[in-house]
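User: ok so my PI wants both of these folded by tonight, can you help

Assistant: No problem, let's get them done. Here's the first:
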Amino acid sequence: MHQKLLKSAHYIELGSYQYWPVLVPRGIRLYTYEQIPVFLKDNPYITDGYRAYLPSRLCLKSLFILSNETVNIWSHLLGFFLFFTLGIYDMTSVLPSASASREDFVICSICLFCFQVCMLCSVGYHLFCCHRSEKTGRRWMALDYAGISIGILGCYVSGVFYAFYCNNYWRQVYLITVLAMILAVFFAQIHPSYLTQQWHRLRSVIFCSVSGYGIIPTIHWVWLNGGVGASIVQVS
């Protein structure tokens, strides 16, 4: 059995002087920084272990080989399963035992769904960034950015819902705003032109908006509750 495995092993180049025997599908090899396409050259300090020039089928198979994207892929994939499991547990055990309302179920679902989308988008990018088509790689990168923004905005949903729980009007205003931003950011960031130079300013505006949006409801909540000196604000 051991000899059979050795015969099916391929030597994968790592750098200009190291070769590892690794069990991988035929057609996959690892490259040095100097050997990869220009669009994959993001970090010159990562010198080895690059996958490149792969069709979609081999990109999927590369999930099970050791490369410089292995940790990125599996950490996000396991993160997805973690949030998926938490979602099932919350929906079937935690929320019913707490006599949660229908709104609680909806908010919890949206929040966890956003986190799962974020994880899956990152898995897709790190898995398919080595695609032989630069266009495909760029699209996955844009989808990864979209997933990050959706994950951030998902954090706002539960915060807004419970912070303004006693103020239904403003709660609805901020929730609708957050959900609208989620959709707008997603469709903007998967647009083919998103990563072009022409959209450079728009990318900056999108990320600043996503990151800074949380300040608005926070300041408003503090003001509605009597300012920084109020006991509820200090406790929070």
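One down. Here's the second:
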Amino acid sequence: TVSVTDTKGTMKYRYGQIQLKSVRTKDGKYFIEATNSLRLHDEYLYGIGEVPSSWPAAALQAQAIASRTYALSKAGVIKSACDCNLYGSISDQSFIGYAKESEPLYGKLWREAVDATMSNESTGLAITMQGEPITSYFTSSTGGQTESAINAWGSDRQFALSVPDSASADITLNPRYAQWNRVVSQEVIALAFLLPDVATLEIVSRNSTGTVGMIKAVSSAGVEVVLRGETFRSRTKIPSAWFELVSVQN
């Protein structure tokens, strides 16, 4: 195995090749960018760190299929920012390298789950529509109802429909996100709306799933800006678009 250490920690790699490249930032500084080239069929999937390896075998296999499908949907498209097909973070999928399958006790269970989804040595199970792999989005919790693509990103995708997810709203099963509270500063909210300040904040509409559809901010000068709820969520980094405005302070 090869270990690579950066400011975020140390990653262990066992498969494929590692390319190192010096990248110049906008402010003239340089950093080393590491890209791990892997066989998607198995080597890449062995390193996916999206779920605990202690989960039931069926759940692990479902994750392996979803991760394979997502990766296939991105194949052939090189991201110029990283000279890669996929980021090893939640921007795409969490990839933790050899640390996943080398986990004490449970690592082998994840590898077995990946292997169980292989049809043969070169092909594996994936989700397709009209012969093409779908962009198989997945999330740890949803607030009780998954969001449709049209509400989340503004474009319709037939495979991304809203369905019930009662487990996410169960405080016992999902103690972190069944209920949550966040304090978002005036500065962050103003930046989200591209305003100098925010005097009032109002939920204008909700989607059929219960998420915030549109949210409006008004500056002290009377300038109004309306954002989609999902855009507001992304810019303020709150857990989801299922929220209420409990209090607004200037």
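The chain has two domains: 2-130, 186-236. Strands lie at 2-6, 9-13, 17-24, 30-37, 128-129, 132-133, 200-206, 212-218, 224-228. Good luck tonight!
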